[in-house]
Amino acid sequence: LVAVLTLGLGIGLSTTVFSVVNGGLFKGLPFPDADRVVSIVATNPSQQQPRQPVSVQDLAVFQAAQTSFEKIGAFGFQALNLSLDEGRPDRFSGGQLTVAAFEALGVQPALGRGFREGDDRPGAEPVMLLGDSLWKERFGGSPDVVGTGVRVNGAVRTIVGVMPERFGFPITEVGWVPMIIDPLAKPRGEDPKVMAVARLKPGVAVAQARPQVAAMATRLETEFPATNRGVGADVMPYAMNMPDPRSTR
């Protein structure tokens, strides 16, 4: 009887935890098929670091060699100081996305276009996306906002689209600019580290993607021991690894 009760309690607890994760996290994320949106993180067990940003050069290797993901991209936080005239700018919580990261989320703008190929390359025309709340608050919800210029952090950017009402990324940001990164800009070890988001291919589970990413990290450790010794990689649902903006800005 004790064994049956214990087993029943264990199953009930597991079911409750799954329900919270599935209902409160996966279903709460503003992406289609949110359970397929994952984080790729660097690990270093010897230093007790299970979830770290990924080297830009390592990310480029993952993007080129993997077969488990539809898209892999980089993202980050960036405060947006936005002004419509010569007055004092207002500060908003914003994000940076590579084109691949935007595509991995699988969300299309409610108005205009999203980030497209070339927007995240050095020298590209400065563009931005507005969140629904920022669009309504600062632009009165006007559809004419697409194609207009706005000063963001001192530079003029063209607004190319407005995201749907519930969209927020990495957490609850209200505006986005392209993240421009160049894996060849700096020597390995000096290249910046970024947070990585990906979308699993249909039929591929997290448990199947993990060994492939880990194997690529092992290969990088062998090829570049000076910079990658002890550095592994892991894959986890994005809902389980939502970043803290205070530690990543």
Structural notes for this entry:
The chain is of the alpha+beta class and 249 residues long. Helices cover 31% and strands 29% of the residues. The chain contains seven helices and twelve strands. The protein has a six-stranded mixed beta barrel with strand order 4-5-10-7-9-8. Helix 2 crosses helix 5 (206-223). Residues 4-26 have low confidence and may be disordered.
Low-confidence regions: 4-26
Computed structural class: alpha+beta
Number of strands: 12
Strand order of the largest sheet: 4-5-10-7-9-8
- Proportion of residues in β-strands: 25-35%
What is the N-to-C succession of helices and strands? Answer: HEEEHEEHEEHEEEEHHEH
Mean residue pLDDT: 87
Termini separation comes to 54 Å
Q: Could you describe the largest sheet, including whether it forms a barrel?
A: 6 strands, mixed, barrel
**Number of helical runs?**
7
> What is the 3D form?
globular
* Rg over alpha carbons: 20 Å
State the share of residues found in helices, binned by percent. Answer: 25-40%
